[in-house]
Amino acid sequence: MPLGVTVVSPEQVLFEGEADMVVCTTTEGELAFLPGHVPFLGALRIAKVRVLFSDESEEVVAVHRGFVEVRHDRVTILSDAAELPRHIDRERAQEAKERIEELLRTGVDPSPELNEALARANLRLELFDYFTRP
Asked: Which of 10, 20, 119, 127 has the fewest beta carbons closer than 10 A?
């Protein structure tokens, strides 16, 4: 029996369907959810969410914080912001990364917001490069 999976951001539903497993990174670490998983509620980190299917394919979503809830063979990802690799603007992500790294090199005190912005840029670049290559 597959899992029902929904990945949603304030702007849109990024994925809705059935899968064999969902892997995400919470504040407790990386977790995998399979059918029959006990109820769970956790906070998400800036990281990818992987939705895996029986044919060994997967859907990957860049999630920029949020929550994951698991109950009754249903996984719901509620993200503050999320995007699919094909919707990522690589040039914009690269420019953001370079701006942030330059600020850090020039001695700007690294704030949590600056570190999160760098993590978002790195995640976007990782997913774009991996999932859009030929």
From this structure: 10
CA angle (101, 87, 44) in 5-degree steps: 65
- Residue 13 C-beta-side C-alpha neighbours within 13 Å: 6
pLDDT in tens, 18-53: 999 999 999 999 999 999 999 999 999 999 999 999
> Which helix (H) or strand (E) segment is 133 a member of?
none
**What DSSP element (H or E) covers 22?**
strand 21-26
Angle, helix 112-131 to helix 90-105, in steps of 10 degrees:
140
Name the nearest CA neighbour of 73 among 38, 47, 27: 38
Task: For the chain, state the CA radius of gyration.
Answer: 16
**Residue 107 tokens, joined:** 């001695």
